[in-house]
Design goal:
Layout: H1 16-19, E1 26-27, E2 34-35, H2 83-86, H3 139-146, H4 160-180, H5 182-206, H6 213-229, H7 235-251, H8 260-286, H9 297-323, E3 327-329, E4 333-337, H10 338-356, H11 365-393, H12 408-411, H13 415-429
Helix pairs in contact: 4-5, 5-6, 5-8, 6-7, 6-8, 7-8, 8-9, 8-13, 9-10, 9-11, 9-13, 10-11, 11-13
């Protein structure tokens, strides 16, 4: 259909051919206005874009040229709208204090409390027991801070008259039994180890552990008995059975919340520390029951050990409290000083030499010096180790059985390290032969 039928020809305006240049297109009235078709001649220029070097756009009816459109390079005048996203932004500064509204109560702001000297945290229960509550200020923290000024002063806190009286009574009982027979001394050894193990298991239970108490105490008593009866060959068997009994016992627990690993470990620790090390007292006494050897070998050696350890404690206490300045290990025990260690060592060596002159077992200067050095080194080490364990458990003493000294374990901690060293020195050097 031709487009001419849609074009308006106004006969009143004159010649249509002459007037078309002025009035081109088709007028559809006020509804649509004037519409120009492609084949209508026009005097208006073709559509073009500003700043374009491509010329006028071709008419849509012309065939395609196949040219690729070209884009103009951006000029400096063009704003780079992406530049703002590439620039590093300045971080927003956080206010030091955030205040929302006002305080309607008008109460002053509460100051932060200094808890540096307090144990304010809850203790994690690693054994499956009940968590231990937080405690107040630790009185020992003040003692630690004052230690560099006068470390030895902490020893003065002991009830000296009571401690001296108790020591004399224990010494008299020991001398009476050692003069009677070795079996009587063994009764004292077993009783001391049994009470020490009871104290240990009671304290660790209070601190949240759940050890195998019965198996541990039984092993601590069985170890010296087996050593005195059979010898050192029986000790591995006792330790093995104690570990098996403890481990198998925790298999009967309802869940892993019973804490088998830490509780087996804490039980085995007591068996080794108290039962095994204490058994060397029985091994030393066994020399007095062995055929073919003098009867006083074991009793003489044990008497020298006890006298040397007691003298070492007294000498360290007196020298440390009067002239102590430098702690041996401040975080473990501020009251134990280098000066006290030296004073105790000198006292031990002197006493061992004096008593050794009356002994038929240790009868030379070199042997006395050897035994004195063993006591002087191993005794303070045993005391420090026990203090370290007490520090970890946050307790002052393991017990109160021995007035003025704390518990049995507190009184005999040094012997647990001295006895094995003295036994092997006796076994290797055989001083009675010379």
């Amino acid at each position: 259909m031709s487009d001419d039928i849609w074009r308006r020809r106004d006969d009143d305006t004159g010649d249509a051919e002459n007037d078309f240049g002025k009035d081109y297109g088709t007028d559809f009235g006020s509804d649509f206005g004037k519409v120009q078709f492609a084949d209508d001649p026009t005097s208006e220029p073709s559509l073009s874009f500003a700043n374009s070097d491509t010329g006028d756009l071709p008419h849509w009816t012309e065939p395609p040229t196949g040219e690729i459109p070209r884009f103009n390079e951006p000029t400096d005048d063009d704003a780079d709208v992406w530049a703002t996203f590439q620039q590093p932004s300045t971080p927003t500064r956080r206010p030091e204090r955030l205040s929302i509204g006002t305080d309607p109560t008008g109460e002053p702001r509460r100051q932060m409390r200094d808890v540096s000297g307090e144990y304010s945290r809850e203790y994690a229960d690693i054994t499956g027991g009940q968590p231990r509550p937080s405690r107040g200020p630790d009185p020992r923290s003040q003692q630690v801070r004052r230690a560099p000024q006068r470390a030895g002063r902490s020893a003065v806190g002991r009830d000296m008259p009571t401690a001296v009286a108790t020591g004399l009574i224990l010494g008299a009982v020991f001398v009476g039994t050692i003069m009677w027979r070795p079996a009587a001394v063994m009764v004292l050894v077993i009783a001391a180890l049994a009470m020490a193990s009871v104290e240990f298991f009671s304290k660790v239970t209070e601190r949240g552990y759940r050890p195998a108490t019965l198996a541990g105490i039984a092993a601590c008593v069985a170890a010296p008995l087996a050593a005195y009866w059979i010898g050192d060959a029986a000790l591995p068997l006792v330790i093995t059975f104690a570990f098996l009994a403890t481990s198998v016992g925790f298999l009967g627990a309802s869940s892993v919340q019973s804490g088998p690993m830490p509780n087996v470990a804490i039980t085995s620790m007591a068996v080794v520390w108290i039962g095994l090390l204490g058994s060397y007292a029985a091994l030393i006494l066994r020399f007095s029951t062995s055929s073919g050897l003098p009867e006083n070998i074991g009793t003489d050696t044990l008497f020298l050990v006890v006298a040397g350890v007691i003298t070492n404690d007294v000498g360290a206490l007196l020298v440390g409290s009067s002239a102590g300045r430098r702690p041996l290990r401040e975080w473990v025990s501020p009251g134990k000083t280098v000066e006290g260690f030296v004073g105790g060592a000198i006292a031990s060596i002197v006493v061992v030499m004096v008593i050794g002159t009356q002994s038929d077992t240790w009868n030379s200067f070199g042997e006395w010096l050897l035994l004195g050095v063993i006591i002087s080194v191993m005794g303070p080490l045993g005391d420090l180790v026990e203090s370290m364990f007490k520090r970890n458990l946050d307790i002052k003493d393991f017990g109160t059985v021995v007035p003025g000294h704390g518990g049995v374990l507190d009184r005999f901690d040094s012997y647990l390290f001295v006895l094995p060293a003295a036994y092997y020195a006796l076994l290797v050097f055989e001083p009675w032969v010379s």
